Amino acid sequence: MLDRIREGSQSFLVKAILVLIALTFALAGIGGYISNTPEPSVAIVNGEEITQTEFDRAVENERARQQQQLGDFYEQLARDPRYTQNLRSRVVNDLVNQKLLEQAAKAQGLRASAAQVKAAIRDISSFKVAGQFDNEMYQTTLRSLGYTPDGFAALIRRDLVTQQYVQGLVDSEFVLPSEVDATQRLLGQLRSGRFAQLATADYLDQVEVSDAQVQSWYDDNLDRFAIPEQVKVAYVMVDAGTVAEAVEVSDEEVQAYYEGNQSRYSKAPQYRFSHILIESGNDADAAKAEAEALRAELENGADFAELAAQSSDDIFSGEQGGDLDWIEPGTMDADFEEAAFALEDVGSISDVVESSFGYHIIKLTDKRPGSVTPLAEVRSEIVANLRDEQVKQRYYELQQDVTELTFEVPDTFAPVTEDLGIQARETDWFSRNAAPGALSSPVVITEVFSNDLINEGLNSDLIEISDTESVVVRVVDHKAAATKPLADVREQVVENVRLEQAQELALQAADELLTQVREQQSVTAVEFTELSEVSRQTTDHPRAVVQRLFDMAAPAAGQVSVDTATTSNGDVAIVVLEAVTEGNVDAARTAQLQEQLKNSYMQQSYQGVIEALRADAEIELRLNSSNDES
């Protein structure tokens, strides 16, 4: 229990459910707001789909998080298909849980107000500059991620509703003061007693080992003497890094690339707009009439910014006089853009424009002319792009050449060496768990230990280890899994039998001493070490002794509790518990421990809710080979 409390208090989940739960996946759920085109789904939860777009973006977010957390070690893990599969399974499982929580919140009739949505958006750190909400940062961030303000607000509204549902459940957990005090006394408990050790080595001389005992121990422990399956492998490696060393980019290629990709190095004119939005709501005609009335006020000289602040349903841009910042084509609703980019003069105002969000009045507030970046400024970037393209192309061609040659002459790598200059290498014997670095990828291990390669002795297909490395392997020799014969390991077996029997004799001696201690007789055969008010965390005595001391029941008055423990070196310890001193209640720690206990209860409650929702749900997982590629 104590371990669970400590672990629960540090749980990411416990902390996460007290904020916007679904923001973990905030970048994953926007697909539905951008396109109405049907797309594949990875799961169906009570009839509602989790789309491939949601899943892919959630996977990328989790990969980015783990890469930041694990650093260079992540690259090694990411090469393992099993790691990738586990990651993707965890993500789809989390998305299913998120969908279940959304559905449960909706079924409860929970809602989030516009003011709550606004406050939540303002609290997102990505939209702040110097600790304050910045509308320009807000608009820029949304555009870079493919959001519309209304779509993002809908996503936040959904997350807030889910948060309400979860908080309504977990916030009902409480901890009684008596629980906190009892836990603190238990954690701070001190125990006194004594212990004595019986060294197993002292009983070795009393042991006689028979051939039957040796054979029996050997038969019972055959797995200790297993010799794993082993292979010797010849292989050729196709390495993009080696290809890159031979790639050179000419000035003519740079010039041609620059001229053929002018759109990359030219900046289209930019336009800044403000707007007044009247949402359609349940009465589109009334909304349109309101927008037309506002348009009439503008014709009569009303100030656009003041009207936007007073009347626009886009609360964020309205606070900025309707400002939408700089906008490029393709970032807004099509009807909105058609009317907006038709405005030519700064200060001109559109008629009332209908879009999927309602009725807009749009004003062109500023524009910037286009520009072209000189070749000199982007030369290094172009060289890098061309180099990367050429390396990829040559690497692909080299892969094809190696594949062809190793297929045409399947029992040697000589043609690859002669025609392509790639040297073949050969390993020493290795097992599945001890492959040399170049062949340690799980996909390669699976191939070299397959029956086909072992039995046929032919070249494998080209195996892609990573984006930059491929290999063709051939098993040149094979040893089946076996067991070391008893004759080869007899000395080791005899030693183990002697140690086990010596330990058994030590346990028998300990049992006799335990009886003497229980009967409060004088024990002189061993020397006891006093244990005076030791804590759970003490390192002054063997760990096994301390653990057993705290496992034992408190003795009755005038009595002792006794038991044995086996230390890490195989010795037997006699442990005597004489007294238990309760820990003190430290008022300074009470609040912290109460929070830890509450968090632990909240985590258990949250997990219970998820398990209950999943038990009652109809869940269809569609994560398979067709959509399992990232």
TrEMBL record:
Just give the chief location class.
membrane
Where along the sequence do coiled-coil regions lie?
Answer: 277-308
InterPro entries reported for this sequence = PPIase_dom_sf, PPIase_PpiC, PpiD_chaperone, Trigger_fact/SurA_dom_sf
Q: Where in the cell is it found?
A: Cell inner membrane
Name the keywords, alphabetized: Cell inner membrane, Cell membrane, Chaperone, Coiled coil, Isomerase, Membrane, Rotamase, Transmembrane, Transmembrane helix
The protein's topology relative to the membrane is: Single-pass type II membrane protein
Sorted alphabetically, the Gene Ontology cellular component annotations on this record are: plasma membrane
A molecular-function term among this protein's GO annotations: peptidyl-prolyl cis-trans isomerase activity
| TM region positions | 12-34
Key word Nucleus present in the record? no
Q: Please state every residue range assigned to the domain named PpiC.
A: 268-366
Q: Read off the SUPFAM superfamilies from this record.
A: FKBP-like, Triger factor/SurA peptide-binding domain-like
Pfam families attached here?
Rotamase_3, SurA_N_3
Q: Which family does it belong to?
A: Belongs to the PpiD chaperone family.
This chain belongs to which protein, by name?
Periplasmic chaperone PpiD
What organism is this sequence from? Pseudidiomarina piscicola
